[in-house]
Design goal:
Elements: H1 9-21, E1 26-31, H2 35-47, E2 50-56, H3 57-62, H4 64-72, E3 76-80, H5 86-94, H6 102-114, E4 119-121, H7 128-147, E5 155-159, H8 164-178, E6 185-191, H9 196-199, E7 201-206, E8 215-220, H10 242-249, E9 253-258, H11 260-274, H12 280-295, E10 302-304, H13 314-321
Parallel strand pairs: 1-2, 1-4, 2-3, 5-6, 5-10, 6-9
Antiparallel strand pairs: 7-8
Pathway: Amino-acid biosynthesis; L-tryptophan biosynthesis; L-tryptophan from chorismate: step 5/5
Keywords: Amino-acid biosynthesis, Aromatic amino acid biosynthesis, Lyase, Pyridoxal phosphate, Tryptophan biosynthesis
GO cellular component, one term: cytoplasm
């Protein structure tokens, strides 16, 4: 029900508010599929902030309506890598045809913010404050299940790119697990094209390609990793939230890699059963949950994080339906 069609508003409004009270004039950021860029553009409009967004080239070119939405809310959008920054120009010299990555877009947004004393950089996932903002999702889910007197939760599924969405959903359930009130299985559904949890290393790494960000201890495929241009642009990030990575290391969360084809198949099935067209990112969680209940068909309470709708992603669904994905 969010104006931008995703969970990202939970953090965008908070970040825009606190920056505005601190006298900041402008926020720069990156975006993959465009949900975070849309959310921050919307939030910036509420608090009188200028928003400048670097969108990963693969999504910028394949999802033009997300760009239109950002501009409608007052944001400025650039394809990344761009010629507007030193980081972008250096990347283009090495590979003029690159499809881009969130790590590249982060480098550009950070560079511009660092050069402007009235600007700040805002990140839409990964960092602890974003994870905290997103726990409203899990807190509401726990409360909703209590209203229907669900006898415990058997499994919680969310898609995982940077990790704040899945962490926001699952951490309140982990609280219930730690206190012995339930014992859910927590599953992070990630794209097979960018398998951070299932194949990444747990170590310190930069959050961007240029190495401008602090080192973070997380599951990573390496700051220079450029994933295939899958349609789930919000999941094309090389590093996983440190807080979520820690829970994986503790054995509290497990990862599963989902192919793009299986994700869209699950998304189409979900749309036909529920009437809601899910975002390509969310279809990964749906696919993982569908396999889980198919393998274990007993009656269970299963929670799925439907983190975005896919009305602006219909061209991608058309590719799947036409057999061109």
């Amino acid at each position: 029900m969010s104006p931008v069609g995703s969970h990202k508003t939970n953090s965008a409004v908070a970040q825009a508010y606190y920056n505005s009270t601190d006298g900041v004039r402008k926020l720069t950021t990156e975006t993959g599929a465009g949900q975070w860029g849309s959310a921050l553009s919307y939030a910036g409009a509420q608090f009188g902030l200028e928003i400048e967004v670097w969108q990963v080239r693969a999504s910028y070119e394949s999802k033009p309506y997300r760009g239109h939405l950002m501009r409608t809310y007052g944001g400025t959008v650039h394809s990344s890598p761009s010629t507007l920054t030193e980081a972008g120009r250096a990347i283009l010299v090495k590979d003029p045809n690159t499809t881009g990555s969130l790590g590249m877009a982060v480098s550009e947004a950070v560079e511009v913010a660092a050069a402007d004393p009235e600007a700040r950089y805002a990140l839409g996932s990964v960092l602890n404050h974003v994870v905290l903002h997103q726990t409203v999702i899990g807190q509401e889910a726990v409360a909703q299940l209590a209203l229907v007197e669900a006898d415990g939760v058997d499994a919680v599924f969310g898609c995982a790119g940077g990790g704040s969405n899945l962490a926001g959903l699952s951490f309140p359930f982990l609280r219930e697990k730690i206190h012995g009130r339930s014992n859910p299985r927590i599953v992070a559904a990630e794209p097979a094209a960018c398998p951070l949890i299932t194949e990444g290393e747990y170590r310190y790494d930069h959050g961007d390609v240029a190495g401008l960000t602090p080192l973070l201890k997380m599951h990573t495929l390496g700051m220079g990793f450029v994933p295939d241009p899958i349609h789930a642009g919000g999941l094309r990030y090389h590093g996983m939230a440190p807080a979520l990575s820690h829970t994986v290391e503790l054995g509290l969360v497990e990862g599963v890699a989902i192919s793009q084809h299986d994700a869209f198949a699950a998304g189409v099935q979900f749309a036909r059963r529920q009437g809601i067209v899910p975002a390509p990112e969310s279809t990964h969680a749906i696919a993982a949950a569908a396999k889980y209940v198919a393998d274990d068909p007993r009656e269970q309470v299963v929670v799925i994080g439907l983190s975005g709708h896919g009305q602006l992603d219909l061209p991608a669904f058309a590719e799947y339906l036409d057999g061109k994905l």
